[in-house]
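## Example pair
The file below holds two records. Each record gives the amino-acid sequence first, followed by its C-alpha cell line.
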Amino acid sequence: MKKKNIRLFFGIILVYALTGCASVIQPGYKGMMWKPWGKGLKTEKVYDDGLVWKWPWTRVLKYNVQWKSYQIKVPLLTADELHVTITVSVIMRPNPDDLPPLELEIGRKYYDNVVKPEFFTITRSIFANYTHKDMTVQGPQIEKNILAELKNRLKGKHIQFDNITLDHIMYS
C-alpha cells in the first residue's frame, strides 16, 4: 500500500511537470520567455508559433501580431462650429521584430496607453479644420492626413499602422 502511494505521488508530480513544461503559441502570435526567478524578460529570442519548451515556473508572453482594427467615437467641433460625432477606425499591429522593446517600454496595453490618446487628439485636430460639408467630400484626404500624423507622432513606439477609415459621421 505504501509503495502504491509513493508511485501515485511521483506520477502526479511527473504529469504536473510535463504539462507545465510546454506552452503553445497559436498562429498569428509570437512569444517571449519571462523568467521571474532569473533575468526577467529574455529579449534575445522571439518565438514563432508552435510549441515552446520551458520550466514550469516560467511564462511565455504571447503577442497577437495580426492586423487588428480599433474603433473610436470622437465628438468634435467643425470649422463652421457644428457639433459632430464621428466614428473612425485604425488598422494596426505591434511590429513583430520589435516585441521585446515594446514589452519593456510600453507593455501589452499599447493601444490603450499610447495609441488611443494620440489617435483621438489627432482626429479632433484634423477634423476641426474642415466644415461639415467638406467632411464627406474630403474624407479620403482626411484619412491620409490622420494616418501620416499618427505615424509621425508614434515613430519609434514599435507599432505598425496600415490604414485609417472614416466609418460614420453623426451630425447634431
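Second record, same layout:
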Amino acid sequence: MDDSTLVFTSSLDVDSRMAFYDVMGSLAHVNMLKACHIIPAEDVDSIIQGLRAILKEIEDGTFQLDFKLEDIHTNIEFSLTERIGPAGGKLHTGRSRNDQVAVDFRMYLRDKALDAVKSIDGLVTSLLKITEDNTDTIMPGFTHMQHAQPVTLSHHMLAYVFKFSRDADRFLDAFDRMNKCPLGAAALAGTTYPIDRFMTASALGFEEPTENSMDSVSDRDFVNELAFCATQTQLHLSSLCEELVYWSSQEFAFIEMDDKFTTGSSIMPQKKNPDIAELVRGKTGGVVGSLMSMIVLTKGLPLTYNRDLQEDKKPVMDSMDTVIDCLEIMSKVMATTTFKKDRLMEVTSRGQINATDLADYLVTKGIPFREAHAIVGAAVRESIESGVNLEDMPLEKLRTFSDKIENDVYKFVPVQSCVERRISYGGTSSSSVDMELSKAIEQLMQREEVLRQEKQLIENCWKELIG
C-alpha cells in the first residue's frame, strides 16, 4: 500500500476500543477449533497462552499498537504470531475478518446497551426520590407553555420516569435482538471446516448463532437500532433540561440548582447559569447526527460486506458515550436540585387554572359541556378584569354567569380539590400517583434484575475464557 492509502483506510484509532472483545472472540474461536479437532491441541494451547498475555497487556494499557497495521484485529493477530510463531497463523482458520469484526462489534455494543440501562435507571432513581418527597407539592401543568391544569410535582416527575423507563426497555429489547453470534459466518458463505457455531455463541454469552451467513456479515440493524435508542433517550434528556433551564430562571423561580452543577458569569457576579442542562440539551444535536450518519451509511448497501461499513463504529460509539455521560451527570443534577414548593403553589394559584373544573362542575348540574365552556369563559374574563380568582369570587357573582351554580362549587374549584378529583388511572390525584409510583418502582426492580443476570452471564463467560 501507498502510505496515504494506509492512512486513509486505517480504522485503528476507532476500533482499538474493541481490543478486549477481539481477544475474547479469538479465545472462543480457538477453543472451538480444538474441540472440533480442526487444528492441533498443542497449537491451540500456544494460541491461548499468547492471547491471554496480550489481554493482560491490553488491560494494563501496555499493549503496543502498530499504526502500520490497519486495525486492532490485525495488530492482535500479528502480535500473537510474533510471540508464539507460526501456530499463531492457525487462529484465523474457519473465520474471516468480516465475521470477526461483526462479533467484536456486537459484544462491544451489547455491553454499552447494558451500561446505558444502568445509567438510565440511575436517573430514574433520582426522579423517583423527587416524586416520593413531593406527593403534595402542587404546580401548574402546561400545554403550549400556558397554564393548563394543576398537577402535583410528583405527577410531573413520573412523566419523565415513564419516558426514561421506556428508553431503558428499548435498550434491553435491542440487546435481545443483537444477542446472536455471527462468528462462523466467515466471509459471507460459511466455511468448509466442521465448526460448531453453537459452541462459540455459548462461550461468548450469546443466545444463539445468527441464522444466515450473508445476513450475519452485512447486518448493521443492531447499530442503527442502538443509535436510535440513544437518540430517543437524548431527546427525553433534552426535554427535561429545557424545563430545568426555564424553571431556574428568575421569571419562573421554580427550582434552585446546586452550585456544584452550575457556573457563574465571567463578568456578572449575580449569575448562576444552568450550564449542565444547556450542554446536555446542546449535545443532543450530535447524537441525532450520529443516527442520521448510520441511516445514510447503510442506505442502499448491496449484500454482503462493503468497506463502507468500516465507518459504522464511530457514530454509534460517540452517541453511546454521550448519552451515558449525560445520564450520569443528570442523575446528580436531579438528586441535588431544590424545588421551591411555596413558589410553585403561588404560581399555580394564578391564571384561572381551575377553569376546566368549574366547567366540569356545571356539567354535573346538567349543562352540556360546550355550554358550560362558554359560561366559564365569561367567568374567566371577569376574573381577569377584576383580579379575583375563580375560587375567591363571591357566590352571587358566580351566579350571574349561571343560576345552576350553588355553594357546593367551592368544593370543586380550589386547586387542591382540582388535583384530588382527577382519580382516573394515570391521573394526578394522590391515589393515582401512588399507583403510578408503585408501577414505576416495580419496573425499575425488574430491569435491575434483568441487568444483573445479563451482566453476570457475560462476566462468567469472560472468566471461563480467560481461565
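Notes on the second record: The first helix runs from residue 3 to 9. The chain has a mean pLDDT of 96.
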